[in-house]
Amino acid sequence: MYVIPLLGIPPQVLFGQLLLGLINGAFYAMLSLGLAVIFGLLNIINFAHGALYMMGAFCAYFLLNVLGIGYWPALIVAPIMVGIFGMILERTMLQWLSGLDHLYGLLLTFGIALIVQGVFQNYFGSSGLPYAIPDELKGGMNLGFMFLPIYRGWVVVFSLIVCLLTWFLIERTRLGANLRAATENPTLVRAFGINVPRMITLTYGLGVGLAALAGVLSAPINQVRPLMGADLIIVVFAVVVIGGMGSIMGSIITGFALGIIEGLTKYFYPEASNTVVFVLMVLVLLVKPSGLTGRAT
Amino acid sequence: MTVLTDDILPTSGRAVRDEMIAFAVMAGLLLIVPLTGVYPFFVMQALCFALLACAFNLLIGYGGLLSFGHAMFLGTAGYVTAHALKVWGVSPELGILLGTAGAAALGVITGLVAIRRQGIYFAMITLALSQLLYFIYLQTPFTHGEDGIQGIPQGYLFGIFNLARPTTLYYVILAGFLFGFLLIYRTINSPFGEVLKAIRENEPRAISLGYKTDQYKLLAYILSATLAGFAGSLKVFVAQNASLTDVHWSMSGEIVLMTLVGGLGTIFGPVVGAFVIIAMQQYLAGFGQWVTVIQGVIFVTCVLTFRRGVIGEIAHYFRRSL
């Protein structure tokens, strides 16, 4: 705190960038979490994750502008609707890939991402659609060292709670225990009378729902754009490579940490803010190829 | 382990004869193109992408490594060649050499990072690396950002061949393509290629046989990068520009799509795939973003029902290797 003014840096701006970094970190965490859970059970890297995140934001936009349903219901409705869409994808397409090489899952979901993004681009162009911050979260607070827009603070806190709840669900409940068991050995879990195919579908729905929820949260901050998830998903891939997909908590911590680092870079060396996560990925690969928390594969 | 091509027949005398006939047919058809009145620009463009897809296929089809960032070699070689031709005023052959060398150097650097992980991680890492490069090219001055390098002089190859003449340019591009194609064919059928296939089928076993698999994969990666760069350098003379589109992830996706449509791990598949996709883009150019949607549909259809690709299905039907 005392060093920063010496460097001639207005702390207002620095904390503003840190907050933005935390928000991006929250999205990285929620998306990489979903990717990790899906990969664990389906052995598929879901390239469509960015497109589904975008669908979450568009879903909130339609709910508001077509049906007059506001932000709060959208937080629940949009993830469920996109989650159902995801489950349909899993039932109709992804499930046929079990037993095939992982790469086919990547290619199939890449195709799905192209279709979804292309359709939205046709109807909405590439520019952003505004989504208003709900009245309850408008305005800001003066914390003394910085001005905190309430909505941004809300996004950080709420995403953190969602991430921790997901962690709790998977690591600490009976349902999660079944899920982890099915990740290790689906055949054996099936022999115990658990409906693994249904579990796979629901897991995919859960991962997709998390992505859609991140999309809804981001709508008032980043506007609603058809390509909002296309570049994000590549950064999230780098996050996944850095953190590894072995642990849920690892995904959460890596996501937030990288968001903060990105925020700091945006402040101290803005030219590198787009690339810092990729550079970190290269460094991690050189020093610890298996990723920070993952097992070597 | 990675099993992408389930029915590759061992190389036999018959297979070699089939491949020779197919090659002769392909080369013959391509040689007479300027006489037929087909728009040469289209064929030249398709040939550049065909070589690019063949280079990509060397990695996925024979090494089992899916690179989702091959556009970075296309784009890098394009930028280097374009810059050398326009700003330094070098001769075309030197421009191609510099561009290809640039892609090779990039292949060494990114290869050392990417081969540290396998399978699905390899795809994500190469994608991330190419995105890193995309942002670098977006910001460095010599690429001219969104505008790209335009109006590149074509010049005289070896001081004799006027590349501004479409027919001359066509045969130069064709010669480059056939050279690259035969080099890949030779690689696949060399002892080196056999070791690559062994690594694709069962890496732990290849390691236990004493092969340093990382070195083989790195070498295959660099070779693939170099040839992709060669294609990128040639493309500069056709398109006369170098732009960010060539480095974008969607270009990497198109390369994957071409190879998938033609047939992963087949010799002629990427060529057929490149012609199909480039033709589709030409004819559907007026449909805007629907082209992206159609590409997505082709991806989904290929993966779900048509995994062998055009050439793969034909080869499978006739029980031949092509």
How would you describe what is shown here?
The complex is a heterodimer of chains A (297) and B (322). Chain A has helices at residues 3-6, 11-42, 49-65, 71-92, 102-124, 150-172, 174-184, 186-191, 196-222, 230-243, 248-268, 276-287; strands at 140-142, 147-149. In chain A, strand 1 and strand 2 form a beta hairpin. Helix content of chain A is 71%, strand content 2%. A two-stranded antiparallel ribbon of chain A has the order 1-2. Chain A has a domain at 25-228. Chain A is globular and about 60 Å long. Chain A has twelve helices and two strands; from the N terminus they run αααααββααααααα. Residues 1-6 of chain A have low confidence and may be disordered. In chain A, 48% of the residues are buried. In chain B, the strands form two sheets. A two-stranded antiparallel ribbon of chain B has the order 1-4. A two-stranded antiparallel ribbon of chain B has the order 2-3. Chain B has one domain: ABC transporter involved in vitamin B12 uptake, BtuC (Orthogonal Bundle), CATH 1.10.3470. Chain B has 14 helices and four strands. In chain B, helix 11 (249-262) packs across helix 12 (269-283). Classes of the chains: A mainly alpha (297), B mainly alpha (322). The interface between A and B is large, with 45 and 46 residues.
Strand percent estimate of chain B? under 5%
Task: Provide the helix percentage of chain B.
Answer: over 70%
Low-confidence segments of chain B, given as residue ranges, are: none
In CATH terms, what is the architecture of chain B?
Orthogonal Bundle
Oligomeric form: heterodimer
Write down the CATH class of chain B: Mainly Alpha
Strand content of chain A: under 5%
State Rg of chain A: 19 Å
**Unreliable sequence segments of chain A:** 1-6
Helical element count of chain A? 12
Please name the two chains that share the biggest interface, counting residues whose Cβ lies under 8 Å from a Cβ on the partner chain. A-B, 45 and 46 residues
What is the count of β-strands of chain B? 4
Helix content of chain A: over 70%
Assign an overall shape of chain B: globular
Task: Please outline the major beta sheet of chain B.
Answer: 2 strands, antiparallel
> What is the chain-wise order of helices and strands of chain A?
HHHHHEEHHHHHHH
